[in-house]
Design goal:
By secondary structure, the protein is of the alpha/beta class. It has a single domain, classed as Orthogonal Bundle (Phenylalanine Hydroxylase), CATH 1.10.800.10. The protein is about 55% helix and about 10% strand. Helix 13 links the parallel strand 5 and strand 6. The longest helix is centred in the middle third of the chain and has 24 residues. The chain starts with a helix and ends with a helix.
Length: about 300
């Protein structure tokens, strides 16, 4: 997208109302740049309000590695972050970098990015009139929720190892000739991977000095749920059990009633290794039905990714 086109666009990179994103999607551009000059005063104000109200809750409920990560990234509390600045602080720590995208990233590509230490990052900011709930990721969720965790080496290694699962899944179905069997197994594996990611990276709890702390990014970026997940008697909290997690459905538009607890990021790394072995052993080939749904786009991304690896 050339500068002339950018100069003609109205200011504002607000989620669901961003002409720059609409143009990129229309042109089939998934990996994009961050046109920082397009952020409006309202976008910066929304970031500032989101950041300010989270600080006390982070101090109270977030794990210490997250708090160290926030400090390491030197995020400006009053301005939308520039991803190039974020990466300048992030890459020397773990090799990870934020990779701007125009919208939904098909599952294989998302996992494969993680394996290459790239985190697909949304560049739009939610509407300031609805700070609390957003049915899709925005820049605050990705940068203030996910990326500080990527500064921790142990967590980063677990994420990289998890990312390699996409290639392993594609390999497992590559030789299956029967179309229905191939699609059934692939659907099951993608569902299992999505559930593992949801109950760990997005909504995970951990033990830290005999207390429960939050490390899941969906919780770390939610003003209401970060407190609810620790304090509410309505939340069921159990030790992370792989056989339970991969068969457990979830809903995205409510506070989570069931969460799982790890003992630390070395434990999380071991769980990813166990997940890998279960995939090799065929234990992910027929998990319980239910959410999340697996789209044709996600299935096709794995089939194309696997074909690309073997071409």
């Amino acid at each position: 997208m050339n500068k002339g086109t950018l100069s003609e666009m109205p200011p504002g990179l607000t989620t669901t109302r961003a002409p720059f994103i609409e143009a990129a999607q229309a042109n089939g551009e998934l990996y994009i740049h961050q046109p920082y000059e397009l952020y409006s005063k309202e976008n910066h104000d929304t970031w500032s309000r989101l950041y300010a109200r989270m600080q006390e809750r982070w101090e109270r409920y977030a794990n210490r590695r997250f708090l160290e990560g926030i400090e390491s990234l030197n995020l400006d509390p009053d301005r939308v972050p520039r991803l190039e600045d974020v990466n300048r602080f992030l890459e020397p720590l773990t090799g990870f970098k934020a990779k701007p995208v125009s919208g939904y990233v098909p599952a294989y590509l998302f996992f494969d990015c993680l394996g290459r230490r790239e985190f697909p990052t949304t560049i739009t900011v939610r509407d300031g009139r609805t700070l609390d709930y957003l049915p899709e990721p925005d820049l605050f969720h990705d940068i203030a929720g996910h990326v500080p965790m990527h500064t921790d080496r142990a967590f980063a290694e677990a994420l990289v190892r998890f990312g390699s699962s996409a290639r392993n899944a594609a390999d497992r179905v590559a030789g299956i000739r029967d179309h229905d069997e191939r699609m059934q197994r692939l659907t099951s594996m993608i569902k299992a991977l999505a559930r593992f990611f949801w109950f760990s990276v997005e909504f995970g709890l951990m033990r830290e000095r005999r207390n429960l702390k939050v490390y899941g990014s969906g919780l770390l970026s939610s003003y209401g749920e970060i407190e609810h997940c620790i304090e509410s008697p309505l939340v069921q909290r159990y030790d992370f059990q792989l056989e339970w997690v991969i068969n457990q459905s979830f809903e995205i538009d409510r506070y989570q009633p069931l969460l799982f607890v790890v003992d630390g990021f070395d434990h999380l790394f071991e769980l990813v290794g166990e997940l890998e072995q279960w995939m090799k052993d065929g234990k992910l080939d027929n998990v319980a039905p239910g959410e999340p749904a697996v789209s044709e786009v996600d299935l096709e991304s794995f089939l194309q990714g696997g074909a690309g690896e073997h071409s």
